[in-house]
Design brief:
globular; 580 residues; two-stranded antiparallel ribbon; mainly alpha; 1% strand; 26 helices
Length: 580
């Protein structure tokens, strides 16, 4: 995980520190402290000092951290989250790694669909996918009305939720393993085969052990993402009572009076578990060496499968269960007058889409608000991510490690925890007296979206920044160009494709940011994810799913447009020279 913000190269090839670079470094560090550091510290402080800065009668109570062993709701939230995350980690890790091995071992019709499905699931909001599963499995849902099967007892159970989250989150493990399988050195497998090992033995004793870093990385990513996921419990709240840490943290702030202790203690344990998972991951990677590629390594070109129809069938089944059922259910419900009527001509209608697109539609209003928030967050995140990358790559700023750590923390901390921290930070009475109380203002959504998406934007730009020779910036500096001029006229044109990619990624994900929208949006400020969830909870399933389908199409269109623009920029700007 820390590799997502790893600084390319070493300090020896960075130029000496200059005043403008130090100013830029301190400015970036100050912004990160406000966006990430202070909100996280305040929300964790509530676990030992509930009401700190927000209530006149707050007191230091470190014994509250032990209350999780005596309070049933706190304990159930912790156990449920650990059970769900661990089960999904095992299932998603095995499924993702197995599919990646299949994809890069043999060639068969439809193999590329595994890549497309993984990325589609990765960018799809978890609460929309979870709503699809709920509408499919509910007693009057699609499974009963269309297939005549009652699967509610299978889905609405801890085991069923583990399967759902494993199917939703397996792309993390799939993409991690696929990246490791992109290059291959067959000498090890050939040596094992010459020793008489069967293909299964070679796979089990040679190939899979060499993939340990990728397998562990994918499994930890699944665990961390499931542990902090707010979308599934939010979608399930109306159909199945299964308290988790993120949902209980949300409830602690939403209830009246606000339970500072509940939100702080559960946030503390949530962050602690994630930190422990990352520590185990780092120790596992450092315990052995896995640098097995040599000069004989070649790009993977899998041979034709012996039974292509079998593997095509496996691919189709996985796509049907993981992708087709939840999204197909949402599409069917959005085109149906009633949920229980089934896909018959008399029950099909476009009235839900017409209502979404009608004048005065709250869904359309929420779509506009969410798009404007995501646009603002995308601009700020892209610019800030670029500046963070510049500091980490081209300067010798003495506090670079703090900037690196802030980005890693933002990557690991769940969005719901950051959102609660923003409430505690920007609702401080001292800020209100100074006219800086931003709680209840849409701008807070932009700031929260920027903090949550910053690690992704930095990672997408670091690779491009590492390819730019230091000599280009040094030459511009010797010609008298100021730092801002060098960045604007030299660096930005060379990394323009990466900037576009970061902008598009943040824009697409920010539209469906449920945690921030639920916690931070003003009461009169309609946002898309909150409106979809509200209409879903009210039983207006057709209207809610129609809004989700149209919004997903909008996100896909934005992603496609940005990809085309990025490719054009890539063709027009190529870095030259070698880094010294």
């Amino acid at each position: 995980m820390a590799a997502l913000l790893h600084r390319p190269g070493g300090a020896s090839r960075r130029p000496r520190r200059t005043a403008p670079e130090n100013i830029l470094g301190w400015l970036v560090l100050a912004v990160l402290s406000v966006l990430v550091g202070l909100p996280l510290l305040l929300v964790l402080a509530q676990g030992v000092a509930p009401g700190l800065g927000l209530a006149p009668d707050w007191s230091l109570r470190p014994e509250l951290l032990g209350e999780i062993l005596r309070r049933p709701l706190w304990q159930a939230s912790l156990v449920n989250s650990l059970t769900l995350a661990t089960g999904a980690m095992v299932l998603g890790g095995v499924l993702g790694t197995g599919l990646a091995l299949l994809r890069h071992t043999v060639s068969f019709p439809g193999a590329r669909l595994l890549d497309a499905a993984a990325w589609a699931l990765l960018v799809s909001p978890s609460f929309v996918l979870a709503q699809g599963w709920v509408l499919f499995a509910s007693p009057s849902g699609v499974a009963v009305s269309t297939l005549g099967l009652d699967v509610s007892h299978l889905v609405f159970s801890p085991g069923g939720l583990i399967v759902i989250m494993g199917l939703i989150k397996y792309p993390f493990a799939y993409l991690a393993a696929s990246a490791a399988l992109h290059w291959d050195d067959g000498s090890y497998r050939q040596a094992a085969a010459l020793s008489g090992a069967r293909p299964w033995t070679v796979l089990r004793t040679v190939r899979v052990p060499l993939l340990t870093p990728a397998v562990v990385s994918g499994a930890v990513l699944v665990f961390v993402d499931v542990l902090g996921d707010f979308g599934l419990p939010a979608a399930l709240s109306a159909a199945y009572h299964y308290p988790t840490l993120p949902y209980s943290i949300y409830a602690s702030v939403r209830q009246s009076p606000v339970s500072f202790a509940l939100g702080g203690v559960l946030s503390f344990y949530l962050v602690l578990i994630i930190a422990a998972a990352l520590l185990v991951y780092f120790r596992a990677l450092r315990s052995s060496r896995y640098d097995f590629l040599t000069g004989r390594a070649r790009r993977t070109e899998p041979p034709p499968a012996r039974w292509p129809w079998l593997w095509s069938g496996v691919t189709g089944l996985v796509l049907l269960v993981a992708f087709g059922l939840p999204l197909g259910t949402s599409l069917q419900v959005s085109l149906s007058r009633t949920l229980h009527g089934g896909p018959v001509p008399g029950n099909l209608t476009l009235e839900h889409y017409a209502e979404v697109l009608s004048s005065g539609s709250r869904m359309l209003e929420g779509m506009g608000h969410s798009l404007s928030v995501a646009l603002g967050a995308a601009v700020l995140t892209t610019v800030l991510g670029f500046l963070v990358g510049v500091v980490l790559t081209f300067t010798r700023f003495r506090a670079r490690f703090l900037i690196d750590m802030a980005g890693t923390v933002a990557l690991a901390v769940p969005g719901i925890v950051l959102a609660v921290g923003y409430i505690f930070l920007w609702n401080q009475p001292v800020l209100a007296s100074a006219g800086l109380a931003l709680y209840g203002q849409p701008v807070l959504l932009v700031l929260a979206g920027t903090a949550a998406a910053l690690p992704v934007a930095v990672r997408l730009q670091l690779g491009a920044l590492a390819q730019v020779p230091d000599s280009l910036l040094s030459a511009a500096g010797l010609s008298g160009a100021r730092l801002a001029t060098r960045l604007r006229t030299v660096l930005v044109p060379l990394v323009a494709p990466a900037l576009v990619s970061a902008f598009a990624a943040v824009l697409a994900s920010g539209i469906f940011d449920l945690a921030a929208a639920t916690m931070l949006a003003p009461p009169s400020y309609t946002t898309l994810p909150v409106e979809i969830l509200l209409e879903y909870d009210r039983g207006r399933y057709g209207y809610a799913t129609a809004g989700a389908v149209l919004s997903s199409l909008l996100v896909l269109a934005l992603a496609a447009a940005s990809t085309i623009l990025g490719r054009r920029l890539l063709g027009g700007a190529q870095p030259s020279g070698r880094r010294t």
